[in-house]
Amino acid sequence: MKSNASLARRGFLRGASACIGLPFLESLGVARAAGAKADGLTPPKRLVFLGMGFGVTRESWYPDVKRTGVDWELSEGLKPLARHQGDLTVIQNLANQFSSEAHWGSTFWLTGANRYAEAGQSFHNSVSADQVAAEVLGKETRFTSVPLGFQGPDNSGHGPGLSLAWNLQGKPVAAINTPVAAFHRLFSDDNTPLAQRQAALAQQRSVLDTVLEDAKSAARGLTQADKDKLGEYLQSIREIEVRLAKEEAWLEVPKKQPGERLKEPEEGLEGEREIELMYDLMVAAMQVDASRVFTYRQPLDTFIRSLGATISAHNMSHYSNGARQEVSELRDRRQSELLAGFLDKLKASREADGSSLLDHATVVLGSNISSIHYLTNCPTVVAGHGAGIRQGQHLVMADPKTPLCNLWLTLLRGSGIEVEAHGDSTGLIKEMLPG
């Protein structure tokens, strides 16, 4: 392990005449974080965002709007969650005001961005709530965040993006797309000799130094618009430098292994079993504190096929009645069963102080799309106690256009992330606050 002084020196990206400070690294304490132990400390906060693409069956998934607060009943689509009713809240009348694409269930789900916010461009996005959280919660873990996804040509109603995560520049963050890849990324040590791995990191740093020197030369005489583009590019370089510094700090720290119950997944798993394994992997990663922020862009086509459906997810989403609606309702129930199993495992996993993972985690299941092509009343389930919110409720917001980002702001603040606003948020959801 390199000394703190050495790492502090590497907190700057140096070229022949370029030097860029990295405030994130200055507060990161990389060397200390890499060797930190959680024993005796307050259990950390964790956030999990589960995106479900094409939404739900509106006739049978949403609870009765006339029964709100703590005196409510789970709907047919949510009944498998009954044993966790006191640990979750269902919220109605949340919306992303700028969402206008009826097949984009996840693209702006965690960002609340306006696609047309930049003049002359047909697509714009901003940072997602998970990445805002990762800037704080990810400082002391090997992986700043873990974006999970799935393989396949069909995007299952999610829309553009590589995962649910979008970085500080509103660019898509790549996902880990199979349980096998996730298992090895989280738990398998690299058997390449340490010297070779150090040399590879040094080579990448050398390339970055050269790129920065070239960028400085190119900056002379640019228009303001081009300078803005260059600034965005340099911010991307900073992010790479942060990642390399973190990899360097953890090079000699072996990865913690999952419990004996979790073995390497089989290749080629799809659908229901794939989702269940991704949930297991997230639980295992939390148990060893590999990361504290997770997103999962869930499959839908393979999921409903694994349940016996013979239609595509897109065709199912255009249900009116009959067979398509039956598939949609089956999807809802099984999705709730899988979520209930995930919560079971979080509740059964103990922290060092005897509390459960669910006591310190917040899990959100949702989509920009309610059902069919409707972009109002985003389906939203919030479980867990990590954000300190009041649970066991059914909330129907008075304003049917209450920003979904009000929820993200509430959860971020409750998880210790000091942000004034997120996306198009207008304030906290007061009904969720303790007291």
Task: List its salient traits.
435 residues; alpha/beta; Alkaline Phosphatase, subunit A; seven-stranded mixed beta sheet; two-stranded antiparallel sheet; 14 helices; disordered N terminus
Terminal CA distance reads: 46 Å
Helix content: 25-40%
What is the N-to-C order of secondary-structure elements (H for helix, E for strand)? HEEHHEHEEHEHHHHEHHHHEEEEH
Number of strands: 11
In the CATH classification, which architecture of the largest domain applies?
3-Layer(aba) Sandwich
Strand content: 5-15%
Radius of gyration: 22 Å
The CATH topology assignment of the largest domain is: Alkaline Phosphatase, subunit A
Overall geometry = globular
Low-confidence stretches: 1-39
CATH superfamily of the largest domain: Alkaline Phosphatase, subunit A
Let me know the average pLDDT: 85
Q: Main sheet: which strands, in order across? A: 6-7-3-8-9-4-10
How would you characterize the largest beta sheet? 7 strands, mixed
What's the total helix number? 14
Please write the CATH class name of the largest domain.
Answer: Alpha Beta
Helix-strand category: alpha/beta
Number of structural units classed as domains: 2
